[in-house]
Amino acid sequence: MKATWILPDGQQTTLDVAEGTSLMQAAVAKGIPGVIGECGGSLSCATCHVVVDPDWAARAGGPLPFETDMLDVTEAERQPTSRLSCQIRMRAELDGIVVHVPQV
After folding, report:
1. Per-residue pLDDT tens for 28-65?
2. Which of 6, 40, 42, 86 is the most buried (most CB within 10 A)?
3. Are the CB atoms for 102 and 51 separated by under 8 Å?
């Protein structure tokens, strides 16, 4: 399954992401700039903030309450489709998902 990260400068990186792998894990493993994942995906740092492309927002779903709280403290301004990429796990319906790495 594929996922694409679009950086603030417009550069795009598309990766194969295994089912069940979080977008944060995939991004950190391949060195996607701006996706740090300091807490390793334990929902305690907000350094994996991405903005889900509007075309994919409904399929990705919205944040759960604790994720919503963490999104309020991200370094980049929160957007309507902001998510923590540690909370988006690859599944068949997300094959082809596009996320934007916000400018910090």
Report:
1. 999 999 999 999 888 889 999 999 999 999 999 999 99
2. 86
3. yes
